[in-house]
Write a structure and sequence with these properties.
466 residues, Beta-Lactamase, Helix Hairpins, five-stranded antiparallel β-sheet, five-stranded mixed β-sheet, 12 strands, binds adenosine-5'-triphosphate, binds magnesium ion
Amino acid sequence: MALWIAVGLAGAVIVVIGLLLRTRKQLARQARRIAEQETRLESQSGELTNQAAELERATTELRHANADLGVALADAQQARVRAEGAAQQKTRLAALLDASLASAPVGFGFFDRELRFLRVNAMLAEINGMPPEDHIGLSLGDIDPKLAQVVEPFLRRVLATRLPIANVEVAADAPRKPGELHHWLSSFYPIAPQGEVVGVGVAITDLTERKLLEAQLVQAQKMEAVGRLAGGIAHDFNNLLTVISNYTELMLQNAETPARNELQEIRHAAARAATLTRQLLVFSRKSAIEPRVVNPNDVVRGMQDMLRRVFLEDTEIVTSLDPETALVRVDPGQIDQVLMNLAINAADAMPQGGRLTIETDTVVVTDDLARRERGLEPGRYVTIAISDTGHGMTSQTLEHIFEPFFTTKEAGRGTGLGLSIVYGIVKQSGGHITVFSQPDVGTTFRIYLPVAEDLVARETAATGSN
Ligand SMILES: Nc1ncnc2c1ncn2[C@@H]1O[C@H](COP(=O)(O)OP(=O)(O)OP(=O)(O)O)[C@@H](O)[C@H]1O
Ligand SMILES: [Mg+2]
């Protein structure tokens, strides 16, 4: 029994041992698996740590990048604001340039290389007599071929030499106004924004008025000098003439004097010379002037008898006097002299007779007329016009008629002083003279005398302002 128990115990022990062994094996396997898992977990944890570090680096980088981006964005925004400002500034400058071109008192024009207008300013457009936009694409020849002949050589020279031509004086008829001579101070220059010449610019100033004033000044100085000279000798000469006349009269009073006819010729010549001296004295302004307020019609009427004697029998004399004429303030003796000179010239221009017309009128000179007629101020005037149907004058003669000693008459027939005296008197009276003449048709001289009332008002205003 005990054996059985022992055997049984032994068997049980064996089973237990067997069980224990299996369990140990199983445990060892599990331990191995756990160890393996541990290793795996360890390596995974290493990887995770790496990844975490990486992530952190990436985050930092991103944060930096974000900061950079912020700076870049701010920069970009600033740059955009600056660019917008610059663009606005550029637009403003362009508008300013446009405005200054438009109001410049100088004509500006820009041509391309084919010498076609790219642009002109208002002044040049006005000179050319057409709107600025109508110029674009046209050549100067399309506007005025004659002017183009004068101007285009300058433009071509600028294109060829790439050098500017400054301040040349170009004399030519105004564009599309043949016969209206103008003087232009002109400059031509290459336009080369990127170094290459793409066109030519011109800048012109009208010098016509200044030229005329200069010519008038020269004329006035000449008159002044001649006047002084003439005045200087006229007085002495007049005294000599008085002696000649007096002795001639004395001899003529003696009935027995031989050579009566010759003496009469001397008297006649002395009288003529005295008239001439009087002219010279007026010319040199040495004779006293006595202005009075007069009716211009009375002056004309007072001249009629004398006029009759100047003209040939077959000259018709017509007077047309404004019944409502205003009064003028002049020296009547001077106006006689003006009318006499104009009448004698008319008679000389009508050797075969003709018609002489004298008209008076009261007119208002508007600003517009004053602008066109140089030397005539706006205001109210009485005009006295003397017209003849004589041989008239060419434009060349017309240019010189008021110059002292200009005459087309043969020696002994004219001294050329008549019209310069007329001019002097009319100007001295605050007036003006115009002339219209056509060869073989006739001539009209029109003198403008300021209305007395206005003249007084003008003088009072002038003294009042001093
Ligand atoms: N009515 C006219 N018709 C044609 N030509 C004229 C007329 N009036 C003036 N002229 C021209 O103007 C010139 C100058 O005239 P102005 O009276 O000054 O001198 P003049 O008549 O020649 O000489 P002066 O008057 O001294 O005797 C004249 O020589 C003439 O050629
Ligand atoms: Mg004369």
